[in-house]
C-alpha cells in the first residue's frame, strides 16, 4: 500500500516535473486551487472555452473536471477536453461537486464517466453515493452521508467505472474496488473552508500526472492535504488564517513533516 516514504517520493517527483494541470473548475475555487497547485510545485491552468479544449488538453499532463458551477457550454467543453485527455492516456480526475443535489449534476457526471473514462473520481460521501444510487441527496455541495456508509458504494463505483474512488470526510477512504487506503488524520477546520475538496481533487490531478498508479496517486494527494492540515492547525485562529497558512504549508512541506504528521 502506501507509506510516508511513498508520499515523500511522489512529492519530490511532482516538484521535479512540475506537471501542467488543466482544470475545468468552478468559479468559487479557481483562485484557491490554482494557488494550491503552484504551492505544491505544479503548473495550473484554468480554461473552459469549448474552442480551446482540444489544444489545452493536448498539452496538459492531467485534466481535472470539477462540475461545481456548471452550464451547458461548460459540459460541452468538459466532454471535448475529456475525450482528448482519454485519447492521450493522461489522468482524468472527476470531482462530482453537488451530484445528488440536482439531476443536471448527476447526469453530467454519468456522461463524463461514459465518454471520458476518468481515472479517479474524488468527492464527498453523498456525491459518491449519488453516482450509484438515485435515492441519495446531497445538501448543495455538502455531504449528507458518512464516508463509512459510502465505502461499499465507492467500491462498486470503482469496479463499474474502472476509476479509483477517493471519498473525503471526517474519514478519507481511497479504493480501487479491492484495496482500501484510509487516511486517519482529522482536521476539524478543514470543512469550514470552501473548496478544500476541490483542492484535494486538483492536488490529486497533480499527483496522478507524476505517479503511474492511480490508487497511490489519489492516496498521496489526500495524505498531503492531511499533513498540511496538521501543520496549519496550531497556527490557525479560524477559517481565514487556515486558508492562508495552508498554502504556506503546501509550499514548505518536506519529508520530515510527512513522516511526523501522516496517519495511515
Ligand atoms: N467533518 C470533517 N472533519 C475533519 N475533516 C474533514 C471533515 N469533512 C471533510 N474533511 C476534510 O476536508 C477535506 C475536504 O473534504 P470535503 O469532504 O469537505 O470535500 P467536499 O465536500 O468535496 O468540499 P468542497 O465541495 O467544499 O470542495 C478533506 O481533506 C477531508 O479530509
Ligand atoms: C460552494 C460551492 N458552490 C458551488 S461549487 C462550490 C465550491 C465548493 O464545492
Ligand atoms: Mg466537493
Structural summary, described in words:
- The chain is of the alpha/beta class.
- The chain has one domain (4-261): UDP-N-acetylmuramoyl-L-alanine:D-glutamate ligase (3-Layer(aba) Sandwich), CATH 3.40.1190.20.
- Helix content is 53%, strand content 14%.
- It has eleven helices and eight strands.
- It has helices at residues 4-17, 30-40, 53-59, 72-88, 103-116, 125-130, 147-161, 196-210, 214-232, 239-252, 255-261, and strands at residues 20-24, 43-46, 62-66, 92-95, 120-124, 164-168, 172-175, 180-183.
- An eight-stranded mixed sheet has the order 2-1-3-4-5-6-7-8, sandwiched between helices.
- Strand 7 and strand 8 form a beta hairpin.
- Helix 1 (4-17) packs across helix 9 and helix 4 runs parallel beside helix 5 (103-116).
- The chain is globular and about 45 Å long.
- The model has no long low-confidence stretch (mean pLDDT 98).
- Residues 26, 28-29, 68-69, 97, 141, 194-195, 197-198 line the site of 2-(4-methyl-thiazol-5-yl)-ethanol (TZE).
- Residues 97, 123-124, 141, 143, 168-170, 172, 186-188, 190-191, 194-198, 200, 225 line the site of adenosine-5'-triphosphate (ATP).
Amino acid at each position: 500500500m502506501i507509506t510516508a516514504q511513498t508520499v515523500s517520493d511522489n512529492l519530490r517527483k511532482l516538484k521535479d516535473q512540475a506537471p501542467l494541470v488543466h482544470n475545468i473548475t468552478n468559479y468559487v475555487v479557481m483562485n484557491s486551487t490554482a494557488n494550491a497547485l503552484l504551492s505544491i510545485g505544479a503548473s495550473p491552468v484554468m480554461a473552459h472555452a469549448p474552442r480551446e479544449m482540444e489544444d489545452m488538453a493536448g498539452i496538459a499532463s492531467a485534466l481535472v473536471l470539477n462540475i461545481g458551477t456548471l452550464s451547458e457550454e461548460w459540459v460541452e467543453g468538459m466532454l471535448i477536453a475529456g475525450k482528448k485527455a482519454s485519447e492521450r492516456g493522461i489522468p482524468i480526475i472527476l470531482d462530482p461537486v453537488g451530484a445528488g443535489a440536482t439531476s443536471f449534476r448527476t447526469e453530467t457526471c454519468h456522461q463524463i464517466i461514459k465518454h471520458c473514462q476518468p481515472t479517479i473520481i474524488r468527492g464527498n460521501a453523498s456525491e459518491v453515493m449519488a453516482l450509484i444510487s438515485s435515492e441519495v441527496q446531497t445538501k448543495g455541495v455538502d455531504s449528507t452521508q458518512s464516508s463509512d456508509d459510502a465505502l461499499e458504494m465507492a467500491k462498486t463505483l470503482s469496479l463499474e467505472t474502472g476509476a479509483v474512488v477517493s471519498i473525503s470526510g471526517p474519514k478519507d477512504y481511497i479504493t480501487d474496488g479491492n484495496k482500501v487506503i484510509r487516511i486517519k488524520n482529522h482536521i476539524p477546520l478543514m470543512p469550514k473552508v470552501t473548496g478544500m475538496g476541490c483542492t484535494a481533487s486538483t492536488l490529486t490531478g497533480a499527483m496522478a500526472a507524476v505517479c503511474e498508479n492511480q490508487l497511490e496517486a489519489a492516496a498521496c494527494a489526500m495524505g498531503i492535504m492531511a499533513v498540511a492540515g496538521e501543520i496549519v492547525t496550531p497556527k490557525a485562529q479560524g477559517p481565514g488564517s487556515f486558508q492562508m497558512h495552508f498554502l504556506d504549508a503546501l509550499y514548505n512541506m518536506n519529508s520530515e513533516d510527512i513522516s511526523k504528521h501522516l496517519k495511515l
